[in-house]
């Protein structure tokens, strides 16, 4: 198993880019693709034609990622653009996320599975509110690695003091959020300085280029290090003459390695059984690991349905109906205290009510605005939710897959809020849950 993991998942890095409007995210991505020879000839020709049509002499590499017509017309990124490329050292899945405050919620989508976030800053403007917002989202989503790319160094004469001041301010802010490490790189995405090739204009910088860092940053992708979590998506009961008593539980491994013979607890019921078989693509295997999709059979005929979770009997998550979390509100309509919602956690969706919104985060100084009453679009805050049925919920700091959830409008299915259970910034620990009386489903 370890060989499969080492030569498969370990060679893949998922990363996201973020920054304010006009900081040059799309240009950086385009430069990265172009200079790493990851752009097909016909794609480059199309960009050159589009650039000439807009009166530009040189190809606008931002057009390689700004694929929507509205993005090309306005010169901004609106939706998350995913790009896949590879170098001899590693494969990459890149999410180019929007910079405008109106689309901050899209960064939650792009960075939710990222192992690294590249936050861009315009060297002329320094750290601005949207920079802080993106750093906060990266911290909340527990993105393991953060790169500060100080862009447009060519417009400040490649001055080292400018870079040093911005790097110091951002690193201090990120540390207050609980980000363990920041790698700062001075670049010019337009000119190509320190993106793929080292810059001839910044001999005072001795660190890696952006691509060098992406190729060498350590990423722990061995699922054996993670606890076993298997959300049941579908119960298979063929009831045929050949298999009259077959009962299999199909789903995708959320984390960890599950083996035949393992003793597992079925949550939220807490019943215990033993894994007797694992089927992968129609063949029996001895083990399965994230993110494989498999069918599991158990020794006992238990009442198991969609939304139940298989976990080690000795290391199962706590089952609760009271959820306290940090959230990023993504809908245009506000989230209010007392609002009835649906809570979707892995494959389980239950009725819930927003008991309380204790605070909203002020990004300038990381202070908490107490009892705001509601969260508007792109707000980050704390919520307390009571569910109608128990959930087997991990802390987000322990498991990004089984510690996250969505709040959904029950009337039309709109996604309202993305939540991270138990997550708080290093500088802001939340108070204990309030009294539950008076909430009746």
Provide a descriptive summary of the structure in words.
InterPro entries: CysN_GTP-bd (IPR041757), CysN_II (IPR044138), CysN_NoDQ_III (IPR044139), G_TR_CS (IPR031157), GTP-eEF1A_C (IPR054696), P-loop_NTPase (IPR027417), SO4_adenylTrfase_lsu (IPR011779), T_Tr_GTP-bd_dom (IPR000795). It comes from Streptomyces catenulae. Helix 6 (129-140) links the parallel strand 4 and strand 5 (145-151). The strands form five sheets. Strands 7, 8, 9, 11, 12, 13, 15 and 16 form an eight-stranded antiparallel sheet that branches. This protein has helices spanning 2-7, 25-35, 41-53, 69-74, 104-111, 129-140, 160-177, 210-216, and strands spanning 12-19, 81-86, 91-96, 116-122, 145-151, 182-186, 230-231, 234-236, 248-252, 257-259, 263-267, 271-280, 283-285, 287-289, 293-298, 309-312, 319-329, 335-336, 340-345, 348-362, 367-370, 374-375, 380-392, 404-408, 415-421. Helix 5 runs parallel beside helix 6 and helix 6 (129-140) crosses helix 7 (160-177). With 441 residues, the protein is an alpha+beta fold.
